[in-house]
Amino acid sequence: MSSKSRSPYWFIFIVGILIILVSCQESGAGTTVSSTANSNNQPVTTALTQVTSAPPTTAAESAALEEETATAVSPITPPDTPANTPTPADTPPPLPTPFVTPSQVSSPTGEVGALIGLTLNSTVGVLLDELPAGERDRIAAEILQRPSTYWDNLAREQVRLTYNRLHFRPFFYDHQKWQLPLPPKALWQIELSPDGPYRATVDGHDLVLIDYTYSSALLTDTTSTKEAEPALSKVGGTWDEPFILPLDPTQLRQRTGNACVNESGFPPNSFDAKNYFIYYDYTCEPDSVGPEGCHRSQYATLSCQDALNGRIGTIETAMRFERQPWIRADADAVRVGEVVAEGAPDVMVVADDLSNNHIVYRYFSPNSCAAQEQCISGAGWRRLLMFNATAHNLGTEALAIGKVNRENPLNNMFVYNSCHDHYHFANYGEFQFGFFDQPAKQAFCVESTSRFSNNEASPLTHDFTCSSQGIQAGWVDEYVAGLDCQWIDITDTVTGDEPVTLPLTFRFNQDGFLCEGQPVLDENGQPVWEPTGLRNQQGLPLSRPQCDFVDDWYATNEGTREVTVPPVGSYVTEPCANGEIGPRRNCGFTEQPLPPLPTPAPTATPDKDSEIADSEPEPVYRCQPGEKVELTCSLADEQAPPQVLRICETSAVLGVGTACTYTAAIANVTISDPNTAVAFTCPAPRDENEPGGDYAFYTAPAFPEDKSSAVVCTAVDQ
């Protein structure tokens, strides 16, 4: 048979094979979920939902996909971590679902970007150890009935504890690896175990626990992905970032002190119970001290892991990062953050962050850093309104200031601060509460602290620190409430007997010292400076770099939110909003009036002319300053549930109790049995205006859902 006579059959055969291949390809084009095992041998689903049929790809997308088909392996492995206690339940996490509705923000670059899925399997819960033993079964039963929203929020609190290691990652890997920041919170997903919460004992700790899976996604450019983690340079590449997390992520300041606080790069005395998550570092050791160590404000006596294991219980887990194929529909679903300036930086004040505020009382000596930097209106006890202040770079270029390693007499923009041991930028912005004049904002470092955008124009990485300052594209410079001087002193501005509602305003870059546009350079590529007519705190003239500002650069540089301030009290006397329980929590307390101190009769002394003149009255004390006070305390209602008695200092100048936190309390005792012993040292004098010798009572039910009861105390005869 000739070749011509055989060709039709070969043609039919080939066409049939092609039809079969196409059919097979189409049958496998449905939803694809890759599953791998994490360090706990649990399946980890990718954070991105694949569409049932991919849209057509451009030539650039096809080239990118072809380049990234291999799986990369990082040359650096994670550091060793201790054995895990406990592990999450061996149940597969639910399939991922879309994070948000498709974004209305289009691609700022029009180019192929990079998609990275994040997953973390963990266990979170509520510590019962600090409650009276006879009450735990009842309270545990109530906690087991809490809605899924409560457990969702608690899981998010635990996930937040990954912030420090992920955002300051270069310091954990000797700058061989770079940031892998958390995605914007709007993209976080928490999938709770369908088995629900359960009670368990972990290392001797009594807890109510629930297992969950966290998932999210990063959208960025392809270059910074490779810089951040070489293992993610190709599609399919994975990296597990190790973590040891407390099973109960709340009240870490109260429970572990500063054992888990990494203050490296932060001003001293800036961490507190509210912002602890920023500093959390499970690798901290007690001998890690100094400006580059964990502990700057005070020494720790335990390692973080010892403190967590001894007081809460821990879980060892890992955040898995997995490079995903580039699919435009997936990118559109997770894109966050508009771009308002092409080829330049443009900063917007995040007004909503001003709503993250709280009130504290704090004592300052005349030589304190806050007094030296004019962060307060006077020494002594002050009432402070603390709040977040955030500036978001919505341009496609970094707002780069550059290296700051000395004071420059040609511009005097930076001044060395001996209290904080770094250089401050002096004209960042200002705060105002109400219509009262306030000091300008005390300058800090201008850094990139969080990545609020999630798009192709916002890199994952940056090299900005206090030594080389700036805000990366899509990142924010976020000053969190609790940082030293991140407050307004409201002691003398909020007075009276009624709550006051006033606007809180943050104004950024009002004097144009930061170039939100293109800097003007000389023939050598150096900035051109211009005089401003302003002077710094030392009286030296200030100059600023010339800048070709983007249009309307100032339009988004001011934000305002209304804030209501009660006449007295702190956030400790505000209702509990996050489900906190136990005697160490800093919410839900009420001041319990004590008998007023008697008014002393003024003493009389003869003057030099033998006339009688009144002198200052002698102070009257509730207790003798510096001496031991012993009380026996009982519940006024014998049938009432356990109550917490917190004893705080008072301010003679302000005439109020200081509504103290757990760590600042003179005493903190749970009253459940009659005649419970309470002992403490009577407050010593603070200064000539604060003689000590007085205290205030604050009470709260140990379990916030229980009813309140007064506490009755009597002095023990000495």
Mean pLDDT: 85
Spans where pLDDT lies below 50 across 5 or more residues: 1-103
Q: Major sheet: size, sense and barrel closure? A: 6 strands, antiparallel
Please state roughly what percent of the residues sit in beta strands, choosing from under 5%, 5-15%, 15-25%, 25-35%, 35-45% or over 45%. Answer: 25-35%
Report on this model:
By secondary structure, the protein is of the alpha+beta class. It folds into four domains: 46-51 and 58-77 and 84-101 and 110-241 and 319-336, no CATH class; 249-311, no CATH class; 347-565, no CATH class; 578-715, no CATH class. 14% of the residues lie in helices and 29% in strands. It contains twelve helices and 36 strands. Strands 3, 4, 5, 6, 7 and 8 form a six-stranded antiparallel sheet that branches. Strand 28 and strand 29 (612-614) form a beta hairpin. It is globular and about 85 Å long. The model is unreliable at 1-103 (pLDDT under 50).
Q: Which keywords apply here?
A:
718 residues; alpha+beta; 4 domains; six-stranded antiparallel beta sheet; five-stranded antiparallel beta sheet; 12 helices; 36 strands; globular
